[in-house]
Amino acid sequence: WAFTRTERFIRPVEDAIDSAHGREIGISPVDLRRLLSAVDRFYDAIFKLGGVSEATDSIRADAWNACFGRSLDTTLDFERTINDLNVLILGEPGTGKEIVARAIQEGHLGPPDGSTPPCLALNGAAIPEHLAESELFGHKKGAFTGATDDAKGLVRESDHGALFIDEVADISEAVQPKLLRVMETNRVSPVGSNRVIEVDVRYVSATSKPIREMAKEARFRVDLYDRLRGTQIRIPPLRERREDIEPIARSIVRRRFEARGVRPDPHAEEEVVGWLRTERASYHWPGNVRELHNEIGKWEIGLPSIEQSAPPPPSDSEGSLPPQIARCTATVEDVTLWYIERVLDSVGENRTHAERILGMSRSTIRRRLKAAGRKRLV
């Protein structure tokens, strides 16, 4: 456990110790009660990080409802994330990880002077490896070709705030140990400089990849993974919280009206909900909330939906499995091939969605199908 700023929990402890300093007969009963109270509050906060309570008022209700509906209101509690603890957000693409990260950033205590904490972000998958170190830690003028000025870097610019690192599992192996060192020491050195600068940064990261398995397989540093997940939040995919689809859809419709400066039309909300209940009742929503946004947009302007005719995924019951798989006598290759074809059926042969669900490239899917003698338009 490494906290850079826990004043609202530690200050009572420090006060109690200071008041008892130099006494030979120990701490007075009043000070002892304050000390025990502070310790109780501190550990209560730690052990209840994953607790259940209502989302805080700092989260903008409209943005929140347009991604999460109602179910997550009772599973995320940013007040109890201590404001110093790093947060790792897990979830499939399109589930709203960035919205959660922004809510955590905005709820951070911020600088001692009470000013608004900086809310900066880096996409680990989008930045080239040779630029990642400079982007994170800054650089000195002339440190490399193109470094025409000094740059602070995102870590220093996030001092007394929270830095959001999206797709953190994609950060290169070369940068991972350097980021770990900065997180461990709370010190950063710009590229090309020997200067060491102290920083106070909270790290909020997110990924859609199986980072835990990557760490176990040595594809991601275990110590960095442990440092990132001071507390961990998993955002369930939309198919696991179908009760949220209607409230999310209503919120999306209202936000689309408001974006055009038009008063929300309740009839439009009901039409969208009716469409979802009839046309999309059994849909798997592989693209999650992002896909729901897009589908409502297409419906609104009358465009045909690419997935409109896609059948719902088959039942997961044992009766729907091939006999060899149900009896556990099939090979891994047989199971893999069956699952590939099942996914292709569930997304209506949509190659992009199939690649995302399977975690395979199009060429790999095509090669496996061809080797098995299957003829499909992939």
Order of helices and strands: HHHEHEHHEHEEEHHEHHHHHHH
**Cα separation of the termini:** 49 Å
As a percent range, the share of strand residues is 5-15%
CATH domain topology of the largest domain: Rossmann fold
What does this structure look like?
By secondary structure, the chain is an alpha/beta fold. The chain folds into 4 domains: 7-47, no CATH class; 61-236, 3-Layer(aba) Sandwich (Rossmann fold); 239-301; 318-371, Arc Repressor Mutant, subunit A (Orthogonal Bundle), CATH 1.10.10. Helix content is 44%, strand content 8%. The chain contains 16 helices and 7 strands. The protein has helices spanning 7-20, 29-47, 61-68, 97-106, 129-137, 153-157, 176-185, 211-216, 222-228, 245-259, 266-279, 288-301, 323-326, 332-346, 351-358, 362-371; strands at 87-90, 119-123, 161-166, 187-188, 197-198, 201-207, 231-234. The chain has a 5-stranded parallel sheet with strand order 2-3-6-1-7. The chain is globular. The chain starts with 6 loop residues before the first helix and ends in a 7-residue tail after the last helix. Residues 1-10, 19-32, 42-60, 78-82 and 306-319 have low confidence and may be disordered.
Question: Which characteristics define this entry?
Answer:
single chain; 378 residues; 4 domains; alpha/beta; 16 helices; 7 strands
